[in-house]
Amino acid sequence: RTASFTIAANATQSSQIALQTGSVSGTITLTFSLQAVGVDLDATGLTQTIKIARAAPAITSVNVSRNATGFTIQVLGLSTPRELTEVDLHFTAAAGANLQTTDLNESLTAVSNKWFQSQASAQFGSQFLLVLPITASQGSATAVGGVDVVLKNSTGASPKSSATF
């Protein structure tokens, strides 16, 4: 990309140029060139590097909704290295109910790689929408009152994020 700006005569700075880095880890190198009255000036050494670090996933929102066979969990988030390795779910019981299973861990490596390596994902940077359909095979899905979600990638784990019905 190229951005042009002018520093007025007898001034020491120009109007600000905004730069949005996005949400993908990596390095951005800015190289500058200078011109005065149409003449190129020596800009040797006028380079700035910005590093967007790899980070644990960040969960933006968690939503749950019931359906005929159980419920669906939707997790919206970001993963700067464009990968997810695991989702850890902890279910809480609805008032007056008991749960036989309270914890579920699922590998996300294969599905994450499929998404983040696809051309369709490029426009979203490191953003993803993880949809987890949960089927109640024993008992009733209405016994579940809420869920805590933790996502992991090779850098670390997200803080817990929760949703209730």
Provide the fold topology.
Blueprint: E1 26-31, E2 34-36, E3 39-41, E4 47-52, E5 58-66, E6 70-78, E7 86-93, E8 103-107, H1 109-116, E9 127-135, E10 144-153, E11 156-157, E12 161-164
Antiparallel strand pairs: 1-4, 2-3, 5-6, 6-9, 7-8, 7-10, 10-11, 10-12
Question: In words, what does this structure look like?
Answer:
The protein is mainly β and 165 residues long. 5% of the residues lie in helices and 45% in strands. It has 1 helix and 12 strands; from the N terminus they run ββββββββαββββ. The strands form 4 sheets. Strands 7, 8, 10, 11 and 12 form a 5-stranded antiparallel beta sheet that branches. A 3-stranded antiparallel beta sheet has the order 5-6-9, with no helix packed on it. A two-stranded antiparallel sheet has the order 1-4. A hairpin with a 3-residue loop joins strand 5 and strand 6. The protein is elongated and about 80 Å long. The model has no long low-confidence stretch (mean pLDDT 93).
Low-confidence stretches at least 5 residues in length (pLDDT < 50)?
Answer: none
The CA-CA distance between the termini, in Å, is 46 Å
> Which percent range fits the helix content?
under 10%
Number of helices: 1
- Give the structural class: mainly beta
DSSP strand tally: 12
Q: N-to-C SSE series?
A: EEEEEEEEHEEEE
The main pleated sheet reads as: 5 strands, antiparallel
Oligomer: single chain
Mean pLDDT: 93
Q: In angstroms, what is the radius of gyration? A: 24 Å
Question: Any idea what the shape is?
Answer: elongated
Strand content: 35-45%
